[in-house]
Specification:
flat; eight-stranded antiparallel beta sheet; 4 domains; Immunoglobulin-like; mainly beta; 29 strands
Length: 421
Amino acid sequence: MGLVAPRLAFTSLLAATALAFGVADAHAVTYDFTVSPPVPNQGKPATFELTPTSADVDRVRWDLDGDGELDDGTTRTVSHSYAEPGSVTVRMRARETNDDRDQTVTKTIRVNATPTADFGFTPVDPYPGEAVAFTASVIDPEEDTVALGWDFGDGERSAEGAPTHSFAATGEYDVVLTATDEHCATTTVTHSVIVAGEPGPTPSFVYTPSAPVAGETVTFTSTSTASQGSIDSVEWDFDADRVYEAVGSQVARAFAAGVHTVTMRVTQTDGKQAVAFSDVQVAEPPGPPPESGAPGGITKPKPKSPVPMRPFPLVRIAGVVLPHGALITLLSVRAPRGASVLAKCRGRGCPARTVARSSAGKLVRFRRFERMLPAGVRLELFVRKGARIGKYTRFRIRAGEPPARVDRCLMPGRKRPVRCP
C-alpha cells in the first residue's frame, strides 16, 4: 500500500512533462486516407495514401478490391487499378501503437468507365485532293462530355466531331481518333485510309429471284457505275474459285442447294477495276406435304429429337472487296418470328462487340457492321429460338477477297455450334 502514492505521483509527473514539452496524447491521432485521382479511371492505377502523413503508425492494412479482406497492402501509400467500372468499397485499418486500438476508415469510390469510340469515312477509296468525310461514333457509359482529337497521318489534325479532310498524295494513311472524357479516360482507334491515284468504278449487282431454290435459274444484273468513261467489261465468278467463268452485264445461273458466294469484277475504260460480292442462299425444292396421320386415323407421335426452325434462318452478306478488307453493304438475317439474333464482332476495327436483335419475322439488318471492316475481323451470328435447332454463321474478313464463310447449327442447350444434322 505504501507504493501507491509514489506511483501516482510518477504518472502525474510524466503527464506534466508531456504537456510541458508539447507531446500529443498517444490516442489523439485520427486516421483517414486520400484517393488520387478522386475518380479513378478504368484500367489505370489509383493511389491511396494514409493521412496525416506525419503521424506515427504501427500497422496499416488495406482492402482495395472490396472483397472484405484486408490483404491488399501494408504500407502508407498503395496503388491499385480496376479492370471494371462502377462503385467499389475501400477500407483502411491502422493503429498508432501496438497497444492502441485499430481505426477503420471506409469509403466508396466510383471507377470511371473508358469511353468507346470508332469512326467511319466516305468515300472508302478516295483519290488525291478528294474530300473525305469522317464520322465518329462515341459512347460514354456515364454520359460524360467527350472531347475528340483526330490525327490524319499526314501531319494534319482536327478537334471537330465530324471533320472533312483531303489527302494531297497517294498512299496509305493511318488515321487516329482519340476520345477523352471529363476524367481524362482515353480511347484511341485507328483505321487506314488508302488514297489511290484515280477513282475506280463503283461495283454493285442484284439478282432475282431473291430466294431461289435448287435448279431454279437466277438472273444477275450489274448496277455498277464508272467514275471515268464507262464500264468496259463485267465478269462473274459463281463458285469462289477466283476464276471468272461468265461475262456480261446480265447473266443467268442455276445452283444446287446451299450458300454460294458470287463475285463480280467490273473494269472501266481506263483499266481500273473493282470487285463486289454477295452470298446467294439456295433452298431445297419443296417436298410433298407431310402426312397428317398413320392409316386408321392414328396420329404419328412427334419426334423426340429437336427439329430445326421453320423456316430455317437465312444469313446474307454483300459488299465490295478492298485491298485491306471489305466494305460491307449488307449484313442481314431472316428468321422466324420470336427468334433471338446475336451478332458478335472480334478483332481490331470492330464498330461494336455485340449487337442483339429480336426477329419479328422480317429481315433483320445489322447496319452497325455495314461499313468498311479491315482484314482479320470476325463476324459471328447466332440465331436461336426455344428448343429448335438454330443457325450459326461466321465471316472472316480478308484482304482482296470476299469474306470467308462457315455455317453451322446451334443445338438447344448447347453453346458451341456443331455440324448440321
